[in-house]
Structures are given as C-alpha cells and as structure tokens.
Please model this.
Amino acid sequence: RTGRGLNSEEWARFVPGLAQNRNVGVDVLADAAVAADSAATTLQFVNLDQLTVDNGVIDIGALAALEAPLQDLETTVSELSDTLNEAESDWLVAPLQSRLDTGIRRADQAAHQAKATAAAARLGPDMLGADGPRTYLLAFVNNAEARGTSGLMGNWVEITVDNGRIEVTNSGRTADLQVPALSTLE
Model:
C-alpha cells in the first residue's frame, strides 16, 4: 500500500498518462481473451473434410451449420478491432503504441476475413442450389486486348449448381452468344 491507503493498482487509475496505458492493457487483454475463446469454440465446429468437393458435390448442410459459429466469430473479432481502435491515445508510451498499431492492423485484417467467411456460410447454401437449381455464366477476358478496364471477353462457361452438385452445362466463344440482328430474322 502507498499513500492514503491506495495500492499501486489503484494509484495507476488516477495518474495522468499512466491511467491511459493501464486501461489500454486491461481492455485489450480482456477482449483478446474473449476473441481467443470464440475462435477456439468456432474451430470445434469446423470439419474441413465436409467442406471439400466430393464427386462434384459440396455438402451444403455442413456449410450451413457453420453460419452461427462464424457469425459469432465475426462479431467477436469486430468487437476486438473496435476496442483496439478506441484504445489509441496520445498518452500511450511508444512501445505500447507500436504494439497497439500492429494489433489494430492484424485485428482489422482478421475482422475483414471473418466477415467474408461468415458471409460465405450465410449466402453459400443458396448460391449452391439449396433451394433449387442455380445457373451462372462465367466470362473469361483476355487482358492483351484491353477494352474498358478489364479486357476483351474471349470465352465463357455456363455452370449449373443444384443441391451442391456443380456441373458445366455449356461453354463456348463470345461469338456463340451473339444474337442475330432482327433484319436477318425476317
């Protein structure tokens, strides 16, 4: 105990500069522990063997089962990112500020990845034909013949996805997609 009955932990809360550094450490460590627990829980639900393509079929049930845990992970990682960003202060000592900057950069990247992964689990089953067949047109461009910003479309493929089964149903060159002029139809 020091001074008027306060211990060093209590004094750290009231000393300008020291309080900000202490609070950053306490807040960041608490949120990091929650984020680590959430990540560990989420990884218990992930079965990568079920998320592979087997004989042209993706198990959309396995993908859908990941939606809730991945959403929880996204929320937790976003909260950690917010905590780190809110922790910035002109009062922080240089070594702590440097580590905080690194943590912010990493947490922001992880939050972006968690958001994309959660969206894939949320949107993936419908895109993979869980509620009926879906047909997609994929266009391939040739950057050597630039038009606009991405190049000239040279080839295309049509894929149909039904209940996780992916099949190429048509393909061809750009000319195959051209519709005859109305004057030639008469």
In short: The chain has a mean pLDDT of 83. Strands lie at 53-54, 57-58, 134-142, 152-162, 165-173.
